[in-house]
Structures are given as C-alpha cells and as structure tokens.
UniProtKB/TrEMBL annotation:
Residues 27-136 form the Dihydroprymidine dehydrogenase domain. InterPro entries: DPD_II (IPR028261), FAD/NAD-bd_sf (IPR036188), FAD/NAD-binding_dom (IPR023753), GltD-like (IPR006006), Helical_ferredxn (IPR009051). This is NAD(P)-dependent oxidoreductase. Residues 152-460 form the FAD/NAD(P)-binding domain.
Length: 484
C-alpha cells in the first residue's frame, strides 16, 4: 500500500468541487456542483489518513469501504475503486450526490474532528461512479444462477424497492416491480429536484435494471388495481417498499384557501416539467411559483427543495418559515447555505397562525414569533409562542412542507391482517424483515418512517438477503415433497 501517497491532509486543504455561482444556477434545474477533474479527485482522496478504525465507514449506513476506495483513487486505480464502491451499494453516484454527508461519513471523518476539514468522501464517490458510467465499467445486471421458477413481487420502485429488485434478480429470481407512478425511482424521480440529482442519473440506473430482466409495472396501484392478497397469490414472496406519503397538515384558519398547496404536489409538478411532461396544474399557474410571493412552511429537506424550486421558477420573493432556529432544523445546513446564496430568506422561530383569504385565494400568512423552551420527549427544545410577537408576511403561494406520515396501508391494501406500529409504519420482524403476513416483507421509509435514501438502499440490500433465505427454504421444501 502506497501510504506515502496518502495522509496529505496537513498540507492539502479540503476542496469540494466548484459550485456554479448562484446567478448562473438560479434559473435552471441542473446540478449545482461541477465535477472534479481526475487530478483533483486523486488529490482530495489522498488527504485520507487511512484510519485503523475508520469512523467514516462506521457512520455510513452501507458501511462502504471508504478508506480503501479513497486509496485506490489516490493511486489512480479508478476502476478498482469503482468495483469496491459498487460492491456495497446499488447507486453510489446517487449517494455521493444527496447523502447528508455532513451528518454521516464526512461529519465523522477524524480529520474533520481534528479541524482539518473532512475528506470530501461524497464528491469522490460520485466522481468514481460517474467515471465508471462514462468508461463503460458499469456491468449489465446478469442473474448468477437460474431461480426463475420462483417469482418476487415488489411494491414501490423507490430506492428500497429497486435495490432489493437488483439483488434478487442477481440471485436469479423472476422479479416484478409495481409502482403507482408512470416512472420508477420513487422520491429520487418525483421528490428530489434536478439541481440536487439530475433525472438522467436515476433513469440510467432504471434502464440497466430493465435490461437485466426486471419487469416494471407502472401506473399500477396496489389497493386500487389489486388487493395485497391477490398480488401475494401471484408471487412466491412480496416486498412492500411504498414509502410514506400522507402529508402532515396545518390546522389554522384559511388553510383551505386556493394557493395553499402540499409540497409534494408542487415538487412532482416541477419534476414532471423537467421531463417535458404536460402538467395542467402547472400550466394554469396553480403549481407554478413564477412571479409570486412564496412562503414555504417547514425546515426539512422537503422545505429546502421547495424554496429552491420556487427561486428557479422565477418567484418574486421566497421566504421559509420554521418554528425552531437554524441550529435545530432537521434539514441539511449545506442546503440552507445553498438556498441563502440563491436569495431565499429564512424567518427562523416563526409559526403560521392563520392564512389571509382574499376572495378564496391566499393573500398572506399571519405568523407568531416563537422561542425555544425546555427539551421535549424527543430531547429537542420545544418551540413556545412569544406573546405579542405576531407578524404578517405577504404571500400568494404557500407551500406546506411539514413532513410525511405513512398511509393507512392495511385499509388501503384491503389487508386487515397487516400489523402496523403506533406511528402507522409497518411492523416487521427485526431479523427477517417479514411483516405479520407470511411471505410479505417490508423495507425503507414504510418501516422506518421518513428517512434517507442511503437507509432505503441499506434496507433493500438487507431484505433481499432475508427474502432469499425464505424463498430458498420454500424451494427446498417443495423439492423434498416432490421427491417423497
Ligand atoms: P420512496 O422513494 O418513497 O418510493 C416508494 C415508491 O412506492 C414510490 O415510487 C411510490 O409511487 C410507490 N408506491 C407507494 N404506494 C404505492 C401503491 N399503493 N402501489 C404501488 N406503488 C406505490 N433523502 C436523502 O438521503 N437526501 C435528500 O436530499 C433527500 N431529499 C428529499 C427531498 C424530498 C422532497 C423528500 C420527500 C424526501 C427526501 N429524502 C432525501 C428522503 C428520501 O427520498 C426517502 O427516504 C427515500 O426515497 C425512501 O425510499 P423508499 O424506497 O422507502 O420510498
Ligand atoms: Fe457517505 Fe452516503 Fe456514500 Fe456512505 S453512501 S460513503 S454516507 S455519501
Ligand atoms: Fe480517511 Fe476520514 Fe475515513 Fe479516516 S475517517 S479513513 S481520514 S475518510
């Protein structure tokens, strides 16, 4: 190992790929970061100190072998770096783009802790796999054995569903993926905007899965088009990976006025426009921020994506109201900085009280000033109202981005025997990841609650293993029965 090529963090400063200036990027949906050139990627990878106990890897939900692929990159052995990186992840180039690295791998890098600035792990990861796609190193998906006598049904083509699909197909099963949308990718396609993750990056992954024999059934909604039991009867095992989609609402006078809209409707419309689709609710202006005073309510990733989408659509002004302060918001600090550069105004410690309704249309938000009190049950400081701190913000488009809860799946799927937790997420066995219904497994946000793409990938990887164990046992039992 060429240790001498590593450990350069003392003399070599941390350098992320250059960001396009705000004035250049604020009217398009292309990713904001330029990519490294090869020499930069090698140089930045060489800052790694090759820790004996790599905390970066410990805090990566996929336990990616980060120190080794950084070393291979620094040594110019990019194809080997790619092969190592893809051995633990189905989409490293996606994680490299949208993981909150400041809270995961990079936030726990020892040289970040020692004040030198973390190794730019996510940017190197993205560079490695983008290069692999360019160079043709990404191999087609091929089944390694033939288990086509058994079929698997997967409900939901988000990162959890397609990751499980890839691993199960690789083992040789016949794999069918059902999704209610007309395209796969889940929130990678219809939630997360192009300026964080260009659509082509997701589409080429899906195309590879289709070419590998995975069958996608789009515009197919389980519950509407078929009950869970009927789908179960068609397959030897099922996976539910449907994510969480019940938007939390605001209870305040005027919330029903036209122009007060749910975040996901807004983001889906914008993402569809990026694909060139016709979207009537965008074209008639209901889901378009152009020329409007926009107020987004919330402080998570969804709120950050909405404010930055509104900027790109040409809003007259964009404000974000959040009831806690900057240090206590759930969204990524990097995203707040990006939004501020693009002209978004954050109104911290403020909560909506009512929506002014002018002839049925929203005209403003009446808000209350908040302060942070003692920690609540979750350990976070609870916001409290500041008496006399009321104020008004002009608005002709208000976007509600307060997070998501699970839909009522037992009811929706016509499956009363499907057990849920008190939060409405699916209850699964910790070891097998099977739900209360035999042969029906679950993974991703529908089990965890709203989480992260990298955790959905991890769950997809884990559940593929447990489903294989289940299917192999069933195949073994059938073979014994036939031989008897
Ligand atoms: P999803 O991605 O939600 O996929 C579920 C799929 O199931 C969907 O395609 C849906 O159409 C389908 N489905 C649902 N019900 C049915 C049904 N009845 N029949 C058929 N199909 C059905 N995470 C990050 O790590 N980084 C980010 O920057 C980030 N940004 C985000 C921005 C937004 C706006 C949102 C909403 C989330 C963001 N997240 C981010 C979270 C991340 O997207 C999710 O944690 C992740 O996508 C969950 O994956 P999943 O496969 O469990 O579900
Ligand atoms: Fe970091 Fe995410 Fe990549 Fe893991 S998957 S190394 S957490 S960017
Ligand atoms: Fe390298 Fe940082 Fe990981 Fe240590 S923690 S192995 S320095 S990337």
């Amino acid at each position: 190992m060429a240790e001498k090529d590593m450990l350069k963090f003392v003399g070599l400063a941390q350098a992320f790929p250059e960001k396009r200036p705000a004035a250049e990027r604020d009217d398009d949906f292309l990713e904001i970061n330029r990519t490294y050139i090869l020499a930069k990627a090698e140089e930045q990878a060489s800052r790694c100190s090759q820790c004996g106990v790599p905390f970066c890897q410990v805090h990566c939900p996929l336990h990616n072998n980060i120190p080794d692929w950084l070393r291979l990159t620094a040594e110019g052995r990019l194809q080997e770096a790619y092969e190592l990186s893809e051995s633990t992840s189905t989409m490293p180039e996606v994680c490299g783009r949208i993981c909150p690295q400041d809270r995961l791998c990079e936030g726990n890098c020892v040289i970040e802790q020692s004040g030198h600035g973390a190794v730019t792990i996510g940017s190197v990861e993205k560079f490695i796999t983008d290069t692999a796609w360019k160079e043709g190193w990404v191999r087609p998906l091929r089944p390694l054995s033939d288990r086509s006598g058994q079929s698997v049904g997967i409900i939901g083509a988000g990162p959890a569903g397609v990751t499980a699909a890839e691993y199960l197909r690789r083992r040789g099963y016949e794999v069918h993926v059902y999704d209610r949308h007309d395209r796969g990718g889940g929130l990678l396609t219809y939630g997360i905007p192009g300026f964080k993750l260009e659509k082509e990056v997701v589409m080429r992954r899906l195309a590879r899965l289709e070419e590998g024999g995975i069958v996608f059934h789009y515009n197919f909604e389980v519950g509407r088009d078929m009950t869970l039991a009927a789908l179960r009867a068609k397959h030897d095992a099922l996976l539910i990976a449907t994510g969480v989609y019940k938007a939390r609402d605001i209870k305040a006078p005027g919330v029903g006025a036209s122009g007060v809209i749910p975040a996901l409707d807004y983001l889906i419309a914008s993402n569809r426009k990026s694909f060139g689709d016709s979207v009537p609710a965008f074209e008639d202006g209901s889901l378009n921020a152009e020329g409007k005073h926009v107020v987004v309510i919330g402080g998570g990733d969804t709120a950050m994506d909405c404010v930055r989408t509104a900027v790109r659509q040409g809003a007259a002004s964009v404000k974000c109201l959040y009831r806690r302060d900057r240090a206590n918001m759930p969204g990524s600090q990097r995203e707040v900085a990006n939004a501020e550069e693009e002209g978004v105004e954050f109104v911290w410690l403020s909560a909506p009280q009512a929506f002014d309704d002018k002839g049925g249309k929203v005209a403003g938000v009446r808000a209350q000033q908040m302060r942070l009190g003692a920690p609540d049950g979750s350990g976070r400081r609870a916001p409290e109202v500041v008496e006399g701190g009321d104020f008004r913000v002009e608005a002709d488009l208000v976007i509600k981005a307060l997070g998501f809860d699970p839909e009522d799946l037992p009811q929706l799927f016509g499956a009363p025997d499907l057990t849920v937790t008190r939060w409405g997420t699916l209850r699964t066995d910790h070891k097998t990841m099977m739900t209360s219904v035999d042969g029906v497994f679950a993974a991703g946000d529908i089990v965890r609650g709203a989480s992260l793409v990298v955790w959905a990938i991890r769950d997809g990887r884990d559940v593929a293993k447990t489903m294989h164990t289940y299917l192999a046992a069933r195949a073994g039992a059938s073979a014994k029965k036939a031989a008897a």
